[in-house]
Amino acid sequence: MKLNIAILPGDGIGPEVMEQGVAVMNAVAARFGHEFEYHEAICGAHAIDEVGDPFPDATFQVCMDADAVLFAAVGDPRFDNNPTIKVRPETGLLAMRKKLGLYANVRPVETFDCLLHMSPLKEHLIKGADFVVIRELTGGMYFGEKYQDNDKAYDTDIYTRPEIERILKVGFECARSRRHHLTVVDKANVLASSRLWRQIAKEMEPQYPDVTTDYMFIDNAAMRVLTEPRFFDVIVTENTFGDILTDETSCITGSMGLQPSSSLGEHTPLFEPVHGSWPQAAGKNLANPIAQILSAAMLLEHFGLKAEGKCIRDAVTASLDANVRTPEIQVEGGKHYGTSEVGQWIVDYIKG
After folding, report:
1. Given this model, what pLDDT does residue 287 score?
2. What pLDDT digit, counting tens, does each position of 181-192 carry?
3. Is the pLDDT of residue 90 over 90?
4. What are the pLDDT digits (tens) for 75-84?
5. N or C: which end of the chain has fewer CB within 10 A?
6. Structure pTM?
7. Which residue among 203, 221, 256 closes a domain?
8. Which of these is catalytic: 103, 187, 233, 349?
């Protein structure tokens, strides 16, 4: 198969983990006889410095012309503590999602047996946890009408029926392909927007009689994700709740450096690790590349390359079992492996 892939390294540790993700893609291409063509483009703080726009038109065009986007991370502390700055790296992230129509963020949550001890949660709670969080990505407060002055500010949490229907469809169909259990997370006891979510989900339930559907308020869901993670199969929720919930799930895996994701919608699909840009570690060969590498696996699986995706997953599991790990998940007294060393080990394993 030939694939045209847009590469967006972004900021901070982004370029370092991206280098390893591409190296793994190349190893898979060589082993399975595929051809992957890469087109790199700027985004985030890097793009602001270069052209004054965190998601410039040229980058958008590269993404639109590609079969898929492999993205790393954006963010820079220069922009974090000044509320008067109008153009931020994260503004480009929202623009990218909106322009590419990426309304469904899919984040799998899985545990590695050899890393159960890294979680702050008790092992008997998380062992065998395997669920997917589907977050609506282009609506809600992040995109609703906003206002701020010195004395008042508001963000409008607005959703329309078509927006809700299409993300719920993703949730129901994902559940149908897994263990046939969907949990709709909302705050319908307080928020009108959540009541519309629940109303529409109830209307759609009869279309999926093979899926068991339940409903949970976000505060209860936030607790049960940590106390009963094995209860869940597929969670679907709105933008703000999904943002918080998916970061919370890193407590289950033991590190955000292990979690990949995909963002799907109207145009080019995008695949990215869930961690941020961690600018303090940039250039220090400390960042865990596994989430980026597993994002590459999700990219390949999206195009039906199941064996190729499994090959990457097997290599990642083997690296963890062999204690080839970056410092934040290394066993006490274990050998130090940096970003590039972990990536190279996985590449070598794939090559055989």
Report:
1. 95
2. 999 999 999 999
3. no
4. 988 887 777 7
5. C
6. 0.89
7. 256
8. 187
| 314 given a catalytic annotation | no
Closest CA to 318 of 327, 310, 328: 310
Q: Which residues, other chains included, contact 199 with Cβ-Cβ below 8 Å and sequence gap of 6+?
A: none
200, 231, 256: which is the final residue of a domain? Answer: 256
Number of other residues whose CB lies within 10 A of the CB of residue 74 = 30
Q: Which one is catalytic: 67, 130, 155, 243?
A: 243
Mean pLDDT, residues 36-60 taken together = 95
Say whether 243 is catalytic. Answer: yes
Residue of 65, 219, 321, 348 with catalytic role: 219
Closest CA to 39 of 14, 58, 11, 13: 58
User: Are residue 215 and residue 306 in the same domain, yes or no?
Assistant: no
Q: Residues 11, 53, 103, 142: which is the catalytic one?
A: 142
Instruction: Tell me whether residue 76 is one of the annotated catalytic residues.
Output: no
Q: Per-residue pLDDT averaged across 312-319, rounded? A: 97
Q: Does residue 110 sit in helix, strand or coil?
A: strand
> Do residues 144 and 270 share a domain?
no
Rounded Cα distance, 113 and 58, in Å: 43
Contacts of 26 (CB under 8 A, 6+ apart): 36, 347
- Clarify whether 98 is annotated catalytic: no
265 residue type, one letter:
G
Q: How confident is the model at residue 104 (pLDDT cuts 50, 70, 90)?
A: very high
**CATH number for 307:** 3.40.718.10
Active site residue 321: no
17, 292 Cβ separation under 8 angstroms: yes
For 82, counting Cβ atoms within 10 Å of its Cβ (0-12 exposed, 13-18 middle, 19+ buried), the class is exposed
Average pLDDT rounded to a whole number, residues 52-61? 96
Closest by CA position to 8, among listed 35, 45, 36: 45
Q: What is the DSSP letter of 218?
A: H
| Residue 293 structural domain | 1-102+266-352
Q: Is the per-residue pLDDT at 24 higher than 90? A: yes
Same domain? For 1 and 143 the reply is: no
Cα distance from N-terminal residue to C-terminal residue, the chain: 21
Question: What pLDDT digit, counting tens, does each position of 190-229 carry?
Answer: 999 999 999 999 999 999 999 999 999 999 999 999 999 9
